[in-house]
């Protein structure tokens, strides 16, 4: 497989992942971004923890999440637990942005 073939394959995988993301986005209420992954979920719990030396870390738990990762064979995950010293971003999605217009 040439470098060009590999690049084309990765581009196609990213496009397929974006399309899947677009299709499932309306099913979820939160976007969670960590240093390694991007998640969609309806249930997220973010806890700020500290260790004895004063360092702070974050513990994030999610249920029934969708993971942005083109190398995963299955992107829906029942339970996720992330522990990180890096930033965590949690955003609530505005449902009105994703609702289909009603026929009136």
UniProtKB/TrEMBL annotation:
InterPro entries: DUF2469. Pfam families: DUF2469 (PF10611). This is DUF2469 family protein. It comes from Actinomadura syzygii.
């Amino acid at each position: 497989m040439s470098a060009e073939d590999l690049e084309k394959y990765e581009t196609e995988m990213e496009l397929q992942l974006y399309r899947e993301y677009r299709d499932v986005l309306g099913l979820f209420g939160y976007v969670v971004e960590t240093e390694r992954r991007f998640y969609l979920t309806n249930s997220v719990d973010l806890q700020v923890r500290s260790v004895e030396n004063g360092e702070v870390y974050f513990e994030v738990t999610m249920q029934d999440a969708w993971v942005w990762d083109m190398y995963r064979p299955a992107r829906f995950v029942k339970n996720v637990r992330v522990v990180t010293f890096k930033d965590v971003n949690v955003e609530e999605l505005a449902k009105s942005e994703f609702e289909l217009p009603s026929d009136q």
